[in-house]
Amino acid sequence: MCAASSKPIIGDPWTMVDPLGDALRILRMSGVFYCRSEFTAPWGLALPPFDQSMMFHVVTEGRCWVEVDGADSCVLQPGAVALIPHGEGHSLLGEPSAIPIDLLDAPRELLSPRYELLRHGGGGARTSMVCGLVRFDHPAAGDLLRLLPRVIYHDVTSPQAEWIHSTLRVVAAEAQAMQAGGEALITRLADILILDTIRSWFAKNLQRSGWVGALRDKQIGQALTLIHRDPNRDWTLESLASAVGMSRSAFAARFTELVGAPVMHYVTRWKMHAAELSLREERASLSDIADRLGYSSEAAFSRAFKRVTGRSPGSIKRANDVSTLRL
Questions:
Q1: Which range, of 11-20, 25-34, 44-53, 299-308, averages the lowest pLDDT?
Q2: CA angle, corner 212, sides to 208 and 218, nearest 5?
Q3: φ and ψ at 129, to 5 degrees?
Q4: Mean pLDDT throughout 74-81?
Q5: Is 116 within 8 Å of 74 (Cβ atoms)?
Q6: For burial by CB atoms within 10 Å, which of 115, 132, 269, 270 has the most?
Q7: Distance (Å, whole) CA 97 – CA 87
Q8: Does a cis peptide bond (omega within 30 degrees of 0) precede residue 8?
Q9: The dihedral formed by the CA atoms of 34, 67, 163 and 129, expressed in degrees to the nearest 10
């Protein structure tokens, strides 16, 4: 396989990158389930935790208090988004004093396999919401999500964010009408809202150490982007250092300090992320993946994969095959 043995020239598209933006591309939503909620005062709803999931809430009419244990409560009004990045249990309340009922006890109507309508309340002032439960395809999404707090509130108030208000209005209209293709459209729009909310949080919480600090470092951030975009390449410590214009020793020391892992450990982990995606999405054979990643044999690849992920590549293929048969 070909190694990156020389520094990219000026103007090379590899050098024209936004490392944080590139990292956000791994948040590809999947397993999306939506609920349109129509509440009337007084009302309250308690949602259980959902493992390995993110939940989001958008108020389209009225207002709603969001309460998550260990985080400050906040009121959502039209034009605001709340994310529960780690899928923790939480409450939605029409007023702070409202007593919530359990989600499973609320009257719900399943409109499609991935969309339902929930109505609850005492007949007073109306609150309408669109809520969603999402998972992410990329095995590395957890690296980014672990950096996020228990809840993120994104209140869009600047004139420059009119496009987000427009997006929220379209989400509200599609959720109400639910015409043909509505689910697909809401999925894409929700993807945009979630990415913008996460991006906004990072912009306001500039971390100078850890993975985000590494992404913001000019040279280490560029190296991370090279690894993320082309994990199959035969990267070495020398080729990456040369690509970002640093000496081998200085690059190795700064990379480990900022990222928290040695260069080649990180490269190997991303190779295994790429392998897992191939196993899930391409249905590629183990021998093809081993060859693509530069391993001398299927057995060598399998050992490396299990060492990094804790699972055998065969178990992922079998789980994918069973999932496909159930469709």
A1: 11-20
A2: 75
A3: -140, 155
A4: 86
A5: no
A6: 132
A7: 24
A8: no
A9: 40
Find the range with the poorest average confidence among 4-18, 53-67, 253-267.
4-18
Residue type, 185: L
Type of residue at 28: R
Contact status, residue 94 vs residue 43, Cβ threshold 8 Å: yes
The pLDDT confidence band at residue 98, using thresholds 50, 70 and 90, is: very high
Other Cβ atoms less than 10 A from the Cβ of 21: the count is 12
Stretch 218-234: mean pLDDT: 89
CA dihedral sign, ordered 243, 248, 250, 252: positive
| Residue type for position 277 | L
Q: In angstroms, what CA-CA distances link 20 with 198, 213, 264? A: 11, 10, 21
Tens digit of each residue's pLDDT (9 = 90 or more) over 247-281? 999 999 999 998 889 999 999 999 998 888 888 87
Indicate the pairing of strand 126-136 with strand 44-47: unpaired
pTM: 0.74
Distance of CA 265 to the CA centre of its chain: 23
Which residue carries 């994990």 as its tokens? Answer: 231
308 sits in the region (left: phi over 0; alpha: psi -120 to 50; else beta) called alpha
**DSSP label at 8?**
P
Residue 89 in contact with residue 45, Cβ under 8 Å?
Answer: no
The position carrying tokens 């043909």 is 180
Q: Give the whole-angstrom CA distance, residue 3 versus residue 134.
A: 37
CB atoms within 10 A of CB 81: 24
Q: Tell me, what amino acid is at 291?
A: D
CA distances 178 to 30, 31, 166, 182, Å, are: 20, 19, 17, 5
Q: Cα torsion at 57, 104, 128, 130 (round to 10°)?
A: 40
Q: How many CB atoms lie within 10 A of CB 313?
A: 22
Tokens of 32: 């999306």
